[in-house]
Amino acid sequence: MVSPASSLSGRLGVRGRLLLAFFGNSAFAVLAVVTAMYAFFEAGDALERITKDRVPATVASQQLARQAERMAAAAPSLLTVNTAEEHEKMSAQISVELEQLDALVGILRDRDVDPSILGLIKTLVALLNNNLTTVDNMVINNQVLLERKKKLLGKLRFTDISSRRLLAPGILVMDAKVAELRQFLKNQTGSTVKPPIEVGGVAETIVSNAPLHQLLAEVSSINDMLIKAASGKSEPDLELLRIPLRRSLETMEKYLADATPFLRKRLGKRLKQYRGYVDGAGSIIGAREKELRHLARIRVLLDKNVIVSRQLNDAVDRLVAGSIEDIRKANLKALSVQRTSTIIMITVVALSLLSSILIVWLYVGRNLIARLTALSDSMLAIADGNLQTRLPAGGEDEIGRMAKALIVFRDTAIEVEESNLRDIEEARRRLVDAIENSSEGFAFYDPEDRLVICNTRYQELLYPDMDVKIEPGMAFETIIRTAAEDGHIVDAEGRIDEWVAERLAFHHNPGEPRIQHRGEGQWILITERKTGDGGTVAIYSDISDLKQREQDLTTKSNALEQLSNQLAKYLSPQIYDSIFTGKQEVKLVSQRKRLTVFFSDLVGFTSTTERLESEDLTRLLNQYLTEMSQIALDHGATIDKYIGDAIVIFFGDPETLGVKEDAIACVTMAIAMRKRMKELEVVWRDAGLEKPLQCRMGINTGLCTVGNFGSDARMDYTIIGGGVNLAARLETACTPSEILISYETYAHVKDLVLCEQHDKITVKGIAHPVATYQVVDHHKNLGDGKQPIRAKLPHFQLDVEMTLMSPDEQREALAILLDSVERLSNFGAKA
Hints:
Strands 6, 7, 8, 9, 10, 11, 12 and 13 form an eight-stranded mixed β-sheet that branches. Strands 2-1-5-4-3 form a five-stranded antiparallel β-sheet. It has a two-stranded antiparallel sheet with strand order 14-15. The chain starts with a helix and ends with a helix. It is α+β, with helices and mostly antiparallel strands and 831 residues long. It is built from 20 helices and 15 strands.
């Protein structure tokens, strides 16, 4: 008979019983949480009172005291500003500080603060605010005084400069006369010759100009004392400076009475100005006295600000002391609540631990763990393949149902095992059939390099026309060594051991597929790959037919390349590359481009042909064309054609660096050709040629038509147009051993190359005469005296071609430059 307790336990099951134990322990946890929440709420209430009222008020009051100290310390910096912009920046900063000070007072107003202390703080803050506002206004007035003093100093500088200029000519005249008189006296010592100068006139000039040195000294003294007065430290110092200033003015007036009428009139005005700088409301000394009195009043206000800041600190200290006492009381209350809650929580935790220990010992350990351990052992035995292991008895709870499910699983596993064995055998048979029917040789070796399986094709490729039998279990080294020793591997002939070692290294670390040369023209492609367990899969493919076609194709490609290299000698390298790389199509098309065209021709070549044998003439002409062509190719030129001893070259197609760069490259090439021709003239003369060849060169930059011209059966890549004709005409008009260029080419190269203007020429098809220029050399190759002078600034530009200027033009340019220097110097002095 089943007891009511056992019936209830079976209905509840493992999950129900564990939930019941969990809810029992949870009741203790809830009790602990309630206790902790009570303690937290009490401590939080105390903390809220501290953080909401006392801490913000304390922090705000301390910030207010520091803010007031910073403002009191920063206010004297207003006296150091020199410009309105600096004052505006400093004033804005103090305004921000005042706004922050008012904001801190507002924070204190919203908190529980002693009204008497708060009232005192508000009064002190208002007083500090008013003082700073007054200081700021007085600083503005002080800026006005400084600006006025600055203007007076500017006028003083003008008066000083103009006075010195009035005195300078007379002093120079007097110094010259004194030097002249001294030289005369030196030469006339003991001589009776009549004096070459009028001594009386010289003496009169010296006497009339004698006061000028003293006047200049007084002007310098007055100017220095006034500048010193502008920065005087106190009013008594300024009064002391007035005495020597007035004495210098009186001395200046006395010496001025002996000066010339002109100087007395002009310098008298300056004396009047100096008196105004010393005495009167508009004097420099008076301006400095006002400034000193104004600064003294500002410093009084700044001292008051320091006193107010100290009083504000005292009030804040009283406020902070009260807040600290309130915080101490709140902390004591929070600690009392915390101790009570800690005792309650320790008791609840102890009861919870005791309950958990009883549950684990009485139910989990003695009931659940024992049954689960038996069930786990049975499952591990089945996983190891022991399907006949003993299984635990079932029950009505979850563990009992798991035991019943395990029995069903074991019976099913037995049936699946028998079915899998049949499927594996069937799959192996199909795999063997598929490998055997493959046209490629297949083999699989285990991690110890023993043959596991291979097909008939593998054996045929390894041992053709042999009765050697390859069977599973044979070592890979044995199989390949037998093939090498029987002469089936061409690469192994005479070096079997070395070849076997190389083959084993590739087998153990396979990479890209490798080709193996067999006897009788057979080629095998070997592909090997490692498997996950360390074995090796090998695929052998017969590629003899593919290798034969590859050799045939290589032979044809070599023949085609040889023919292409021969054809390249009849084309310019740029044209050849653009055609054979597919950039250009070989068809009758053309386009308009701005090119730089070069023509060259040998002078007196016809007469030279009459004096030389054909072989010597051919060798001479080929040497000339070879040298010039190499220079052209080195500079990136496109060689159009050779017309006897003439060469046609152009820049800008099929590749271009830009019109300007192409023109520079062409002219640079021509200079290099001219230099090489001079060297060749020496060589030819030494070789016995009486009259060496000389070359003329013409260059033009302009629009040309470039492309393929001719017919579909025979075409030529060349250039035509007016730009080409002009280049040819320039070459004809050129002096032997020189280079003649058009104006457009000159415009592109003039910054780098020195050119001389030449005669204008008339060209058919051009209505007006064409300007020409003869190339001299690169500026960098010329001396410093021949290089042009060029400079460019936003408001200044200078471009001087000295080699092209006539003597009259050079003198006129020099006069213009000297006048410009003088005017710039005078303008700078006035500024």
